[in-house]
Amino acid sequence: MNYINNSRQPRKGNSVVLKNHLITHRANSSQNNNVKINQDSLNKLSISLPLEGFRIQLTAPLFSIEAFSPADITLIAITPNEFYTLIVTPKGVLETLVSSLVLEVFNPDGVMIFKIVAPPI
Length: 121
Prior knowledge:
Layout: H1 18-22, E1 23-26, E2 36-41, E3 44-49, E4 55-60, E5 63-68, E6 71-79, E7 82-89, E8 92-98, E9 101-106, E10 112-118
Antiparallel strand pairs: 1-10, 2-3, 3-6, 4-5, 4-9, 6-7, 7-8, 9-10
């Protein structure tokens, strides 16, 4: 028998449409074509950075961390104030649950490609 922790499942009525509400900055650049942002469901956002040289900056209330591409990022809104984040790179995996976050991705030239602020302000 599988146990399901219902407290971690998105609650109906409290869903967050991630792609439309959280991406606060998106640069127009030819390098954006290599960054894939997909909204897999109402509360799940997947980001793929297949090329090397992109820098990922994740800032949360208690920590700040930097990672480099290639990387796959998953962001799930569990509630409007609880976010599950998974960053997978060849050098390691970061998995965290936070109340708020800022996720920024910079191209190899140091220009911000996009910025996600959760919860939206």
